[in-house]
Each structure stands twice: as C-alpha cells, then as structure tokens.
Design goal:
This protein is mainly β. The chain has 1 helix and 26 strands. The longest helix is centred in the first third of the chain and has 4 residues.
Length: about 375
Amino acid sequence: MPDSYPIQSSFAAGEITPKMYGAYDTAGYQNGLEFVLNGICDTRGPVFKRVGTKHIVDIDDVNDAVMFDFHVSNEESFTVTIVDGSIHIIANETSKQGPIEIVNHAFETGEVGWGLEPVGAATVEFENLFTIFDRALLTPGEEAGENATIFQIIDVTKPDSDYTLEIEGLFRGRVGATFDILIGTTGFESFDIVNVSIPEDRLFQKIDFTPGGAEQLTLTIRANDFSGATEDALISEIDRVSMRQDDTPAVTVILPGTEYKANELHQIQAVMEPNGLDMYVVHRNHTPRKITLTLPATWAINDVVFEERPAEWAGTNNPAAMTFFEGRSWWAGPNPRIWGSKSGLYEDITLGALAVTILFVAFNRRVRMKELKPELAV
C-alpha cells in the first residue's frame, strides 16, 4: 500500500487568531484553520458540515421574542414563543412549507431518482464522505456541448400553488459557461417555467415559481461546457435540492391577552412541571401564570391559584424565578427570599405548615434573583 502524506490531517483547534499566524511550531497552529465556512471543527480532528436552520412560522409585527421548550415527551414537544401581548404555541415539525417533493433530494442514495446526462468528456459522479457529506459532482467538458447534467421528473402535489426551489452547493459557472436551473413541462431541458443561470461561485440559490396548473414538471440542473470560458473546466458540487409548495398554513396556537410587554420579555423565566403538561411562567411584574396542555391539543393560560399565596407577592415583587426540586416547587422573589411548596403540592405555600420551607438568603449587597436551577440534594 503506498504511503500517504496529507498536508493536514486534524483541524481540532478550529479557527485560530491572527496573532498565531507566525506560531507554526505550536499544536494549535498545526491543527487549526484560518477560516471555516458553514463547518464545525470536531476535537477529534475532522470538520463536519454544520446543521442548518429552517423557516418555521411568521409572527407578524414583532421586533423581539423569547422562546421556551414545552417538552411533553421524547416524541412530542412544542415551542412556546412569548412576544409583546401574546403567546404562540408552535408544534414540533411545523413548517410554513409543504414536504419536499424531490426524490433523494440530498443524494443520500447516490443517483437514485435522478437521470444523468453527461456529454462527451463531461462527468457526473456521486460522493459520500463520512456518511454526512453526500453530494453530486458535475464536471463539464471543454468542448462545445460537453455539458454535465442531472434531471428529475417531479409529480406536483398542488399544481396551482406557489412553490419554492432551493439548491445548495458550490456552483462553478463562468462567463460563457453558465450553471443553469431549468424547470419545464415538456421534459428534459425544458424551461417554460424556470430558466435561471446561477452567478459564479454561488453557494445557495432560491427560486420562487408557480407550476401554472402542470401536474408534472422536469427539473434540469446543468453545468454547461467550458468551451467559451477562459480557464479549465471546474467541478460544481450540489449538496441538496428541495422543492416545496409554499402555502401550507403553520400549525400554531395563539394565546391572547397576556400582559408581558416588549421590554419585559428577557426577564421572563418559564419552567416545565414534571408532569409534562404544564409550564409555569414568572416575571417579577406579573402574577405567576401557567400554560396548560390538555391532550391531545387544547391549550390554556391562567393565573396560578395558590393555597396561601405569600402577601409579599404583589406589584413588582412577584416571583422572578422558580424551579422544581425534590418534589417541591421553589419560588424566588426579586428580594433575597426563597419559598418552597409542600411536598407534591406545587401550588400550596401555606406559611408555617409542615414541610414548607422559607429560606432567607443573605447577600453583601442589594441584588435581584433572576433564575433558580436545581443542582444537588438538600
């Protein structure tokens, strides 16, 4: 087996500071990079492509928001988004867009679902690296007509809806050798719906279109020959291609009438009750509230009704933080005082009753409690 001498086999140090550029004899320099785009450096050496984000839902007329995880079980969770004047409950896997209508859109199974049309010296290859880098490689030739092309015939689920096509990769078109996206109704390389040339070295392209009633479309992705270019043919990489219809309403529940204002949002703390069906929301300017899910999908928000609510909890002196620990609920006011409920009765804070604890916390200066976190057993 021949010897291998890689230039660099580990990137565990990640991006290094410019102050280290001359420190070539250090481990950080030898395992580092100057710049990483859309990658995560693993401490074991490799660089992985970072996970992306997905547009979930529009919340109109909002400049700020805070979000909390309403975790029911390992199979079901929701996102509680609190904005100025309302609370939005967004279901897990909610999407403003419909499902992807392209087979093998991220090339996990190579060429399955795709037609290949390389001409002459052009090539189309599929690559899988470390089970996470799946991509198609399109290399055009340097003679006229030597295009590298893949295509797919797509059955359209909603022919009269608006659609969005998104393509990610590295597209190496040049003047005289464009990289083209075509969508048409009459088969391979038809373009009566979409005909777009992607600018050189682009990493992402989004195209909005309407099928115009067509129930079947052909998507063609073509790296054109480099016969008219001033340099050698370059490989274009395609990581994923998605096509979704764009008018699926987001599954969201809005709880109106909440009193939290924009300037209070980032002082809110929200904590799940161990039963997985209630979330307590606290802010020192507001009485504690509870968001309740009644399965399968009924939501409500109400003020917490305490048994013997402490008299101090009023005005701007309501609990600013809370948590659950050792079978009790624990509440901290903005002043240095912590209340513990009766064991197993989270809303019973009867002063002087058995198993109710009030802790007075001494500080060297005036502070406001902002958060409680359970750690070790008392």
